[in-house]
Write a structure and sequence with these properties.
This protein has about 90 residues and is α+β, with helices and mostly antiparallel strands. The protein contains three helices and four strands, in the order βαββαβα. A four-stranded antiparallel beta sheet has the order 1-4-2-3. The longest helix has 11 residues.
Length: about 90
């Protein structure tokens, strides 16, 4: 059984986790077979759920944790690391 791939991202954008990056995250996560979740504090949302990601209410300086689990998790996590560079 494989381990879950996990990485963190600290939001630098003054607007926080707003519609534009959320749309990019959803589109990128939807291209992979792996399940991807994003958490901020105690709140967790699927990376393909636009409203769920917006509901995290992540602001500048907040740390997001991205968890990727599935058959293509390594490639998916690598691609998402680039997507999260906002």
């Amino acid at each position: 059984m494989r381990e879950t791939v996990e990485f963190s991202h600290v939001i630098a954008d003054a607007q926080g986790l707003h519609a534009r990056p959320v749309t990019r995250i959803c589109a990128a996560a939807g291209q992979w077979e792996s399940e991807v979740s994003v958490s901020c504090g105690d709140a967790v949302a699927p990376a393909t759920d636009l409203m769920g990601l917006m509901g995290l209410c992540a602001r500048r300086g907040d740390e997001l944790t991205v968890r990727v689990e599935g058959p293509d998790e390594d490639a998916c996590a690598a691609a998402l690391r680039e997507t999260f560079a906002f």
